[in-house]
Design brief:
The complex is a heterodimer of chains A (about 190) and B (about 300).
Chain A: E1 10-15, H1 16-33, E2 40-44, H2 49-64, E3 70-72, E4 104-112, H3 116-128, E5 133-141, E6 153-157, E7 165-169, H4 171-174, E8 178-182
Parallel strand pairs in A: 2-3, 2-4, 4-5, 5-6
Antiparallel strand pairs in A: 1-8, 7-8
Helix pairs in contact in A: 1-2
Chain B: H1 13-29, E1 44-49, H2 55-66, E2 70-75, H3 87-96, E3 101-106, H4 111-118, E4 122-128, H5 134-148, E5 155-159, H6 166-177, E6 181-185, H7 193-199, E7 204-206, H8 209-212, E8 218-221, H9 237-244, H10 248-252, E9 259-261, H11 274-277, H12 284-303
Parallel strand pairs in B: 1-2, 1-3, 3-4, 5-6, 5-8, 6-7, 8-9
Classes of the chains: A alpha/beta (about 190), B alpha/beta (about 300).
C-alpha cells in the first residue's frame, strides 16, 4: 500500500487528554460488556498495542478495583505478508502467569485497518491456548477492511482515504500522546 | 539482511545482535504447548552433511521443523556421493528440487563458499573442515550473553586445539565483532599465530593456562581433534591434560561468576574433567538447547523475508 511521503501534510485527530478520555471510555465499555471484567485477559499487539493494554488495565483497576492480567502477543511470524517485505525483527510474546485457557481474551491494537494483523493474532492465539472467547479493542478504526473482522471496542472511527495513513503515538514509546492523520489533505 | 551465512565474518555487530535478539524471542517458544511457527511454511531446507554430526544436524532439523519448513536430510553415507558424485552435481540436484536453503557440513574448508556459487538459495555453513562453524559461535555468544548479561568487554579464553578448531575461528571473529576480548591458550604447536593475528588484531595468545584463568569471564575448552592430527602435537595425552586440561583445582581459580563452555563432543578426562563438565558453572547442556533457538533465528532471518 502506498505510504504518504514523510513531509506530507498532517492533521492531529486526538491529542493528549483526548486520547486519555478515549482510553477511559473503552475501559468503561469493557467493564460494562464483560460484567466487571472478571475472567478477562488483555493482550496487546506490539508495538503500540502493548502500552495501550497496560493503560486499559490500569484504568479498569482505578474504576472498579479489578486486576486484569496483561500480556503481549507478537504476530510477526504469523503475518501473511512476511515474504513480500524484508525480514522483520520479532516483538515479544508474553502471556500472563495464568495463561489464556478458558478466559476471555481482549486483543488490543492501535489501528484497525485491513484486518490482517487481527487474523494473524487469531492464528497466533490458537497456538498458545484455547480462550473461551476473543474480543478486539482498537484505539482507531480507519476502515478499508479486507477480511470479515470487526472490533468490539473502538476508540474513534476515522474515515480515511487509502492514500492517507494514521499514526498513533503513545508517551511510553514516542514521548507524546496523539493520533495523527497523514497525507491526502489540501 | 545477508543472504548466506558462510563465515562469522559475514556478520557485522548490528546483524549479529539482531540474530541474538531474535534467538531470545525464539527461546521463549520452547516453553509453549505448540512449539511450531508458520513463518517458513512451504520453504525447503536441505541438511547436506558430508561429515558425521549429532547435535548440529539434529539442531538444524529441529529449528527448521519448528518454523514449519520442509526438511530434507542428506548424509554422504548411503547417497550417490559414495558412488563418486561431486559436490557440484549434488548441488545442482538440490537446486533442481527447489531448496530454499542448504545447510552444509563438509570436511573441506571453503565448501560452503563454492556451494553458494552453484545454488540459488541461501547457504548456511554448519562446519567446514578446520575453517569455520558460525552458528556454533552464535550460540556460544548467545549463551555468554544470557549467563553474564553482556558481551562487550567480556574476557573469553579459548583453550586447547585451536589449530584444528573451526569453532575457535568463528568465535574469534564473532566475539571480536561484538566487543569481547579473546585469548587463545594452548601448546605452541596447536596455536596458529598467523591465523590468530589475521582473524582479529586484538586477539591475545598465551601458552600458560594457569596465568589466564583468574582473568577469564569465560573459559571455553576445545576438543582435541585427534582424527585431524597427522603428526604428534604434544608428547602424551596425560601431559596435555595436566597442562591444558580444566580440572577442579583450576576451576576453583576462576572468578566467581565465570562460566565453563565446551562445544562438544567432549573427551572427558582429557581437556575437561568430568566433575567440571557436570558442575553448575558448565553451560554445556545449555549450549545445545540454545543452539536450536539460534538456528531458528538464522533460518528465519535468512529465509523469512523477501
Amino acid at each position: 500500500m502506498a505510504q504518504p511521503r514523510a513531509d506530507a501534510p498532517s492533521k492531529i485527530i486526538l491529542a493528549g487528554s483526548d486520547l486519555s478520555r478515549v482510553v477511559d471510555r473503552i475501559a468503561h465499555q469493557i467493564l460494562e460488556k464483560t460484567s466487571g471484567a472478571t475472567g478477562t485477559v488483555l493482550l496487546g499487539i506490539p508495538t503500540r498495542g502493548v502500552p495501550l493494554a497496560h493503560r486499559l488495565a490500569a484504568r479498569i483497576h482505578a474504576f472498579e478495583g479489578v486486576e486484569v492480567p496483561v500480556g503481549s502477543l507478537d504476530i510477526t511470524l504469523y503475518r501473511d505478508d512476511l515474504r513480500l517485505k524484508a525480514t522483520r525483527a520479532l516483538g515479544r510474546t508474553e502471556l500472563p502467569p495464568g495463561g489464556i485457557d478458558g478466559l476471555r481474551v481482549i486483543l488490543v491494537d492501535d489501528v484497525l485497518f485491513s484486518g490482517r494483523s487481527v487474523r494473524a493474532a487469531l492464528d497466533a492465539l490458537k497456538d498458545l491456548g484455547r480462550p473461551s472467547s476473543v474480543q478486539l479493542a482498537v484505539l482507531v478504526d480507519r476502515g478499508h477492511r479486507q477480511l470479515p473482522i470487526r472490533a468490539d471496542y473502538v476508540g474513534k472511527n476515522i474515515p480515511t482515504a487509502l492514500s492517507e495513513s494514521v499514526k498513533v503515538a503513545v508517551t511510553e514509546i514516542d514521548d507524546t500522546d496523539e493520533v495523527r492523520l497523514i497525507g491526502g489533505l489540501q | 539482511m545477508i543472504k548466506h551465512l558462510r563465515s562469522a565474518a559475514d556478520l557485522d555487530a548490528e546483524t549479529a545482535t539482531l540474530i541474538l535478539d531474535t534467538a531470545a524471542e525464539m527461546a521463549a517458544l520452547s516453553g509453549r504447548e505448540v512449539k511450531k511457527l508458520p513463518a517458513l511454511r512451504g520453504r525447503t531446507v536441505v541438511n547436506l552433511f558430508y561429515e558425521d554430526s549429532t547435535r548440529t544436524r539434529i539442531s538444524f532439523e529441529a529449528a527448521a521443523k519448528r518454523l514449519s519448513a520442509d526438511v530434507i536430510n542428506f548424509s554422504a553415507k548411503g547417497s550417490s556421493v559414495s558412488k563418486g558424485e561431486s559436490l557440484k552435481d549434488t548441488a545442482l540436484t538440490l537446486q533442481a528440487m527447489g531448496a530454499d536453503a542448504v545447510v552444509i557440513r563438509h570436511s573441506a574448508s571453503g565448501a560452503p563458499h563454492r556451494l553458494a556459487n552453484w545454488v540459488e538459495g541461501s547457504v548456511v555453513n554448519a562446519g567446514d573442515g578446520t575453517h569455520e562453524h558460525p552458528t556454533q559461535a552464535l550460540l556460544d555468544a548467545y549463551t555468554m550473553r544470557s549467563r553474564l548479561g553482556r558481551l562487550d568487554g567480556l574476557r573469553v579464553s579459548i583453550v586447547g586445539d585451536v589449530l584444528h578448531s573451526r569453532v575457535a575461528r568463528s568465535n574469534v571473529l564473532l566475539l571480536s565483532t561484538l566487543g569481547a576480548q579473546v585469548t587463545l591458550v594452548g601448546p605452541p604447536t596447536l596455536i596458529p599465530l598467523d591465523v590468530a593475528a589475521a582473524l582479529s588484531p586484538s586477539t591475545k595468545v598465551s601458552y600458560d593456562l594457569d596465568s589466564v584463568i583468574p582473568d577469564s569471564d569465560v573459559v571455553m575448552m576445545l576438543r582435541v581433534q585427534t582424527e585431524r592430527m597427522q603428526d604428534s602435537y604434544f608428547p602424551s595425552a596425560r601431559e596435555y591434560s595436566r597442562r591444558y586440561g580444566l580440572d577442579l583445582p583450576r576451576m576453583r581459580n576462576m572468578p566467581e561468576h565465570a562460566i565453563v563452555m565446551h562445544p562438544g563432543p567432549m573427551n572427558r578426562g582429557m581437556e575437561i574433567a568430568p566433575e567440571v563438565a557436570d558442575s553448575p558453572r558448565s553451560t554445556i547442556v545449555e549450549q545445545v538447547a540454545n543452539g536450536v533457538s539460534v538456528r531458528m533465528a538464522v533460518l528465519y532471518l535468512l529465509l523469512g523475508g523477501k
